[in-house]
Amino acid sequence: MQFGQFSVAQYVAQFRWLHEQYVTHHLRVELKGCAFRTPAGEILGYLEEIWLSGNRLMLRGWAQVDSATFRLGPIARQVQPRSERLDVSTARACDPFVGFTTSLPFSKAPLEIELVKDGGPPFVITHYMDVDQGRARAVRSLQWQFWRELLPLILTIAKGLRRSDPDIRRLIKTSLRLDQGRSIPVLDKRFLAAAGVVHPSVCDTLSAVTIILPVFNAFHLLPEVLARIEVNTDLPWHLIVIEDRSTDGEVRPWLHGWVSRQPEGRVTLLENEMNQGFIRSINRGFETVSSMARTGPVIIINSDAMVPMDWASRLTAPLLDPSVASVTPLSNDAEIFSAPVICKGAELKPGQGDHIDTVLRQKIAGSDAPQVAVPTGVGFCMAIGSGWITRVGTFDTGFGRGYGEEVDWCRRAAALGGQHVAATNLFVEHRGGASFGAEKIALVQQNNAIISNLYPGYDRSVQEFMRDDPLATPRLIAALAWLDSLPETEEIPVYIAHSMGGGADNYLKAQQSEKSATVVLRLGGAERCQIELETAIGRFVTSSDDLGLVVRFIASISKRRIIYSNAVGDHDLRDVPAFLIALSDGAELEILFHDYLPISPSYTLLDKDGVFRGVPGPKTTDAAHLYQCPDGTHLGLSDWRSLWAKALHQACRVVAFSESSARIIAQAYPDIARRISVQPHQILQPPSVLAPGSGVGKVVGVLGAIGLQKGATIVSALSLMLERRHDIKLVLIGYIAPGFPLGQRTEIHGRYDTKDIATLAKHYGITHWLIPSIWPETFSYTVHECLATGLPTLAFNLGAHGDAVKQASNGIVLCLPHDKLDAKAYGQLIVTGVDGS
Q1: Which residue, 38, 291, 715, 740, has most beta carbons within 10 Å?
Q2: The pTM is what?
Q3: What DSSP character marks residue 338?
Q4: Cα 233 from chain centre
Q5: Which domains does the chain carry?
């Protein structure tokens, strides 16, 4: 029984797949944490959150230890707690940088936690997790959630199926949030060839190959396709061309002429009397191979695949293992083998494909690289091992004119023990399905439904492959080579950024929006460095704990320009200046001062007691300006600045975002004062000008995420003080860090969008803005947003925000004493400023 394109059975199979994918993608199993208790009973921290998501165990907590190693079955992950946790430091009067977040591939075993404190002997805590019970609860909850989200789509789906809407699959996946990724693959240095190592040719160890090439139209590509096979094939070869009754009258006569010029016995030309389609043409090629009694690997190739130099030996090398049934190379358009972005096609400019292949051939360790198992091969260019066609059979003609037949064949081979792998050191350009044209979308949709019905677990295996991406390392090499060879791009910005969000991240996003392609090296996440490629095609993200390995990758971008934005949160900040120097070897380096990390480990320049007393001298003994290294030793401020001075002197440009910031930088590094460029930020969405409030009382608005350095102590004291004042009210449009109590009369709005600032100010009746920041900010978007409303804006007389209110007609400057942080005195100063305005 048919409805639309597919049978009822096929729709049922697709529904089952959809339900399975939904549960797999959204499953989050919450598990109980545990305390980190020494054998003597002392509590050193807590594993506060454990959850299972996407088959990974996610861990978050805090610990006052040198290192914590989490072991689950055969996998272990070591972390050094360095994330900022103000709530912990407030409660325990300790260093705030004690937080951690990490993850492990899940296996059903107890979680072992090995802790090392003050360089002493490690001790182990075993934590038993009741995963089965937690999973059962989570799955039950998801069943209801699935139906709640699916039912509103039923009518839309029915209409889409009736009119065979090709966009219906994307609509469903987007609506059910199945297109959101979860995990970030980690780079594997085993793929990389050692510097200067030349890998020996494997030609002598491989058999002659038979190449099967179906041809249907695409005459504009055919001469180059055949010329490349003729010139670039580095193994003894025989070519079987199947001309599939092209409607273009030039194809067949031209092929006759080309074949006549080949050595006798080199090419077999078969001509279909009627158009048979890709699958039947390939099967005719398989039958011809059998009738000719040819042994050795068989390679099927599309008439829009452009093979590079010495391709055949690299493609067929994995077939020396008789258990390998198929091998597929990387490409610009080959589903899970695609680069720069998985499952997204990229049109290449002339010469790009060969350049990418050359880089892969040089950088991948050939047969020494890890073998990557894949769920399927892709038939645009796929090598099949000797004897596997006989064992598995030919392609299934039930797939019509093509698409999906290689998946079916690979699944049948897998059932017989066959392995499918990627040729990680080979890149073959695919010029976009030219041999199928407009039929492609309909064929893919129809045949994907058949695959889902025949092999219920296949879609899940593909999703897991995409999530874990074992091809991330060669894919990154190919992606960077693609990026570097874009002819229209003169410069590739490589930003070094942190993982903490905020204004600096907003600035970075604005910069990226103006570029066609960028690279971001984000420090301080679950892995030490997250590598993000942003392109017009899409986004590719991978990660590594090894900064040296990251340098090896980024150094391959000849057009790179290194731009340091910030690095707060990295677990060993001593390495950052040398990292910048290594990245910029042979390239320009630009250092931006979004904070003052190059001046002091206290990147806000606050002393230990939370007071800014000017730029600290290199001989200071204040603990805030001494860096505690992961090994427990301390680095003085003089040595800290010596490390950063090397990077600053190598920089072609040093950028400050305010005159105040430039003065501070020049005081710490007077020898670079002339090279400091001041470039103030611009507000992207200035709020509307507001009329002064007409109410009886005054309402003070605090805008943003208020942490310790942003004045959380002052806001807390002011809020409690105003409990006794009914003529002044405090409203927080944003949120405050944990551990800073607010009075009951203080309203908290929570997260907001900058475009809503004026609307929210009207809603809450705000008459004054307060910028409570107690550090000399390098630039403050918030103060400029507040001033833009026209309402009186109060700020302390320090940093960029202090300068901004001094220069504004609606600015009110509060004199901040530099002796100690007396929150109540500061609160009274604010009240006086509000009363007098």
Answers
A1: 715
A2: 0.78
A3: B
A4: 37
A5: 2-27+135-175 (no CATH), 33-129 (2.60.40.10), 206-473 (3.90.550.10), 488-678 (3.40.50), 698-835 (3.40.50.2000)
